[in-house]
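Next comes this protein.

***
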Amino acid sequence: MGMRIGHGYDVHAFGPGDVITLGGVKIAYKQGFVAHSDGDVLIHALCDALLGAAGLGDIGKHFPDTDQSFENIDSRILLRHVIELLQKSGYWVVNADCTVVAQAPKLAPFIDQMRVVLAEDLAVTQADVNVKATTTEKLGFVGRKEGVEAHAVVLIAK
């Protein structure tokens, strides 16, 4: 059947602002992300996982931070483009499992909405997308509330 697995990872530091975007969902917070795009670490990790599974490089290759056309871009646009690339290569998404690592803000109230948004962009059902949130028990940069990281694992098929 031509199944392939991909893993993606991304991290962004907190900086000025009062909203962060995770999984395509805007969340009010006392800071924003320092990033070229909207800084959505969850979608960036997902893009890398998808591109890696299909052997199509990584997010930096397709959307370099030196390209001004991607400045402040909604990461959902990037994800939809990645899905188009996969489809042109004959792949479709089977499922995605994602983990957001954040000491703050608390993400549990937003998980279901993230799943709905991501399922729509991935062209799968909500049951095919899992999003989890965890902390680092106050260890490291995440534990010190300096930023957020995300991991994504995907299965695609040809």
Observations:
- The helical segments are 41-53, 59-62, 75-88, 111-122, 140-143.
- The CA atoms of residues 100 and 150 lie 4 Å apart.
- The mean pLDDT is 96.
- Strands lie at 4-15, 19-22, 25-28, 32-33, 92-101, 129-134, 147-157.
